[in-house]
Amino acid sequence: MYLPKPNDFYALIEAMPLCIILHDAQTKEILWANAAALAALGFTLEELTPLKAPDMTRDAPKYRRSVGLRWLEGAARTGQRAIEWCYRSKQGVEILSEAVATLVHLDGRDVLMVQFRDISKEDKVKRDLKRFESRLTAFMQDLAEGVAVLGPEGDIGFISDSGAHLLNSEVHKLMGKNFLAWCDDASRQRLLQQFARETPEHPPFNVHYQVQRRDGEWRWHDATCRYIEIEDDLVGHLLLFRDVTEQVQAEEARRLSEQKLEYLA
Question: Model-level pTM?
Answer without folding.
Answer: 0.54
